[in-house]
Amino acid sequence: MRDIKYVLESWGARVVNSNDSPIAKSLSGLIPHKIKSRKRCSDDDGICISNCIVSLYEKN
C-alpha cells in the first residue's frame, strides 16, 4: 500500500503540469516552480484519481 498523501501530491503535480484544460493554461503562470518540479504520478494512477474526483463531484 502506498502513502495517499504522496499519491495525491504527485497527482496534483500531474494536473498542474497538464495543458489539457483551458483553465490550467490560463493559470499556469500562477503556479510556483516548486510545485511544477514535483514528481508526477503515472498515467494509470492519474486517470484513476481523476475519475474518482469526477465521481465525487457528480455525487455531491
TrEMBL record:
<dbReference type="InterPro" id="IPR010534">
    <property type="entry name" value="Phage_933W_GpQ"/>
</dbReference>
<dbReference type="GO" id="GO:0060567">
    <property type="term" value="P:negative regulation of termination of DNA-templated transcription"/>
</dbReference>
<comment type="similarity">
    <text>Belongs to the phage antitermination Q type 1 family.</text>
</comment>
<keyword id="KW-0238">DNA-binding</keyword>
<dbReference type="GO" id="GO:0003677">
    <property type="term" value="F:DNA binding"/>
</dbReference>
<protein>
    <submittedName>
        <fullName>Phage antitermination protein Q</fullName>
    </submittedName>
</protein>
<keyword id="KW-0805">Transcription regulation</keyword>
<keyword id="KW-0804">Transcription</keyword>
<dbReference type="Pfam" id="PF06530">
    <property type="entry name" value="Phage_antitermQ"/>
</dbReference>
